[in-house]
Fold these 4 entries.
Entry 1:
Amino acid sequence: MIIWLNGAPGAGKTTAARELLRLLPGSALFDPELVGAGLRSLLPADRLAAVDDVRELPAWRRLVVDTAAALLSELPGPLITPMTLDRQEHRDEIFGGLAARRIAVQHFLLHVDETFLRRRAAHPAALEDAAAHHRRLSRLPRYRAALPWLTADAHTLDASRLTPRQTARLLAERVRRGDGTCRIVQGPPPTAATLAAGVLFFDDRDRVLLVDPTYKPGWEFPGGVVEPGEAPARAAVREVAEELGLRLERDPALLVVDWEPPRPPRFGGLRLLFDGGRLDHDRTRDILLPGAELRGWCFAAEDEAERLLSPGRFARLRWALRARAQGRPLNLEAGVPVGA
């Protein structure tokens, strides 16, 4: 298990984590800052210069998951992990990756009022490192903007007036009673190429329905991996029932087949999109999301979908819309029609 201590820079996560170690037998400290330090020493300067923060690197997020899994194969756990996650897509990617490895997460937000944070940053000891002082203050607006989703996702503990030891004692109590448990449901990571089926639904303005997974970054089409021996269209029907609570009366028509090439660490595979047709107002009221997998849904016009989807998924959607208009399916490779 991982006890993830989130919060603004300077909130006292690391000092509270060290105190918590004494209260939870078998626990160990896992500081993802060490993963970042390793990347800074290994990656060329031009790659590091392309991001504002090492946490923006996909490699950092993958290594955090892989390192945690490796440590838990050597240690009884739990791992106490003090690290600011103020981007929801990063939280989704990391916690989803941990869930896929059957590693439970308890997510805590150590919230400290901004007045106290600025007072701590102005402390003479903190000012010894002017660059770190400036970095902490510069990240406060991003933390402030993230508070709505953070407080909804994590168990919040107001540590503004608490000492690290008091914070740790409260955390230990709440860990033991299961507060902050992330209820992500995610299958194990694939070990080979996969076949996946998605379904496109439309409203009366021809906007497409997208869903927001809790276990990976970005938005997605309703659907999922086709099980061994399962017909793709039937898999699409099954996934729609599981994810949206909608029952399709017949197998949906195929719009595109897209071969996704392997790009390590992903294995790629075939991605199919089917036409689920229009959803009227009564049917959209019947949508019921599984909270452990999906946190929301929306109808998006093509330009809105481009902002929400990854480039590969958007390319697939763009051709699926053209296939729907032409009334014939299209065969794609890496998001481009074969022979184009």
Entry 2:
Amino acid sequence: MAKIDFGGTIEEVVTREEFSLSKAQETLTDETIAVIGYGVQGPGQALNLKDNGFNVIVGQRKGGSSWDKAVSDGFVEGKDLFEIEEACEKGTIIQYLLSDAGQIAQWPTVKKHLSPGKALYFSHGFGVTYHDQTGIIPPADVDVILVAPKGSGTSLRRLFVAGKGLNSSFAIHQDATGKARDRVIALGIGVGSGYLFETDFKKEVYSDLTGERGSLMGAIQGLFAAQYDLLRKKGHSPSEAFNETVEEATQSLYPLVAENGMDWMYANCSTTAQRGALDWWKKFRDAVSPVFEDLYDSVASANEARITIEANEKSDYRKGLENELDELRKSEMWQAGAAVRSLRPENS
């Protein structure tokens, strides 16, 4: 493993220099990787593994849109595309990539095919960490491992095709065979990770749920909405409010931050923007810190897991979800966003 200095904290990470693709292929040469679920993470991971030369099959309910997508992606029924139970039987490594609700529903089917020596692979620590609520308790004689790409399956695939990688965490919850570490790192390299950093199932799910509800999605939508609404209330047009709130951030500044860091951004903007950003960022940090404390406590107490599970169990969940998403779609800010996107030069 490589030792990297993260601002004074030394962390060990795995890169493709220490664990090459050829080593990963050799490690898993006798394995059949059964990707169960072809929704969010399934397509990207399955296709990347397949293109990297691993023996991959997909397990999915026949007749649904995800089955059809797997077919359109080149998987062939009876060859490398099967119903879930048959794929679980054939796989020596079962990549359990259904949604959290789907994992709960399918667990009895998957569990009966976890014969000794197999590996059960997750990309999210939810099911195992909150086992009191999910019922997912793997048998003691299988490896239980995790690779969690830090982004969507779509991004994982797009970066792979471009010859790049998406960073991933990895974890070993249970090493029954003595091979769990090599297995999980080989899989992390195989799915197209940029580099791999170690965690555990609990830390993965705590950070993931906090991030989704925080700066990745929940908090950023709240921040956008607050600024947009303020500008509109003060008489600014929808175009001006949206461009100054969202468009400039996502199209200009965030890509530069991703490439060079926020310190570089501060050093390379106008002196007016620089002074304002330096004066205000700590005020925003201090304002939202208590909200993040509440959020993390809600995740750690399993309250967020309970809310998620109970919501998904409701018969009218999909209808309610569509209503909530429709509220976003029909908000003036995102209606303005649709108009602004249509006016981008590449769309004209």
Entry 3:
Amino acid sequence: MLLTKKQTGTSGAVSSPFIHSLRRGLSQALPTMDRRSFLRRSGLGVGVGLAASQLSLVQKAQAATGASIVGAGKVEVKRTVCTHCSVGCAVDAVVENGVWVRQEAVFDSPINLGAHCAKGAALREHGHGEYRLRYPMKLVNGKYERISWDVALNEISAKMLELKKASGPDSVYFIGSSKHNNEQAYLLRKFVSFWGTNNCDHQARICHSTTVAGVANTWGYGAMTNSYNDMQNSKVALYIGSNAAEAHPVSMLHMLHAKENGCKMIVVDPRFTRTAAKADEYVRIRSGTDIPFLFGLVYHIFKNGWEDKKYISDRVYGMEAVKAEIMAKWTPDKVEEACGVKEDQMFKVAKMLHDNNPGT
């Protein structure tokens, strides 16, 4: 999707969408094959052929005169990386006269494969969005009114001091951000200490610390152990507690490629999500019963001798105790009672995981 800055009232502007598109295409030579280049080179009909011939003539004229096609401005394409998260999606920023006016997802990026998530699609808006707040706003009688920075600082400070005086410093909770750099994180933590509390947290401790505890102890590495290439070469994938189609569409794109290569997709979720709609096997569990569901899988895996004995020997401590408890307490009837999944579906999922290797 091409994201273009809205312009109104431009004197002398050509109103035809085709001419506007052609001029925009002539004004730049993108370093990669984007949608416009692909369509232009695909020979789609006489109109495109004529446009291509005109492109050649105009390019030659431009080269001879050194003139710019779009106004007198300089148009550049800057390859950059989306800063929203650590995935690393590539973006081509179109810069006109030093202003970022539109963007394209990079098609030859091995990460985002020419796609954006909703946050990445709005990347330009963070710095140049027409609707971005540029000053403090206060809700007064149901409507937002502009106030000065001094008024905003004084009112917020007064409210915080009021809370501290009435209920103590621990009555206020501070949370950091992944968008903070090291210095900002340092200053926030210093401020919280100066405030007199230890109520300072960060989203990574909530969403990621659990994986560090499990993954680091098992693999010796606290982050992801799979790359997107691993996903695309997998023969089976188990999604549990993940709605990637909405929460991580770039990851979902790689999963859909994996499905084209024959990967079986299993989605376990109380809700039938957009991710579940793509599943080869959808398992609906009761909310909060992830562990009984996993114990139910392990029951069938142990019962049929499908466990990876070498991995357990090399990497897992205390599995014999876990096995004894599962085989005694988490029989299929108990699992169904806890999470609502019948024995035949539990067995089917366990067998899918066993029969299709490698998995993710």
Entry 4:
Amino acid sequence: MDTQPRWLDPEQKVAWDNFIRMQETLIGRLSRRIQADSGMSAADYVVLVSLTERGNGRMRFLDLAKRVEWEKSRMSHQVTRMAKRGLVAKEECPDDGRGAFIVATPAGYKAIEEAAPQHVEDVRRLFIDALTPNQLATLGRISKRILDHMEKQPD
């Protein structure tokens, strides 16, 4: 059975196009700023934030990949690059011989602690300051609703 695509109407297309353009522009600018300010890539920052926000600075490899929505191969390459620079270490998982933990090293903690203040200022300047408190709360609720909806959908 041949089903017709459910094309976006003009209002939906404008909303989608503006969302995509906003997201890509914001991520692009934040990524360039992190690189310029700290020498870290945006991917380095995402991994280190994910690890250090966990409290003990360690996560199972697959949990980390899932948290940042990356394929295993991308995570593997990123971890290898970061390990070579001393930002993370890979440790065997004692209860699962096939699994591994990714651990933020002292150098990784230092790098994120030095980069985070400027990154937060950039997030505030480019994103937070553009919205009223009410608009920010609304965006937070909308974002949560979309995330919850996606959790119910197959990949």
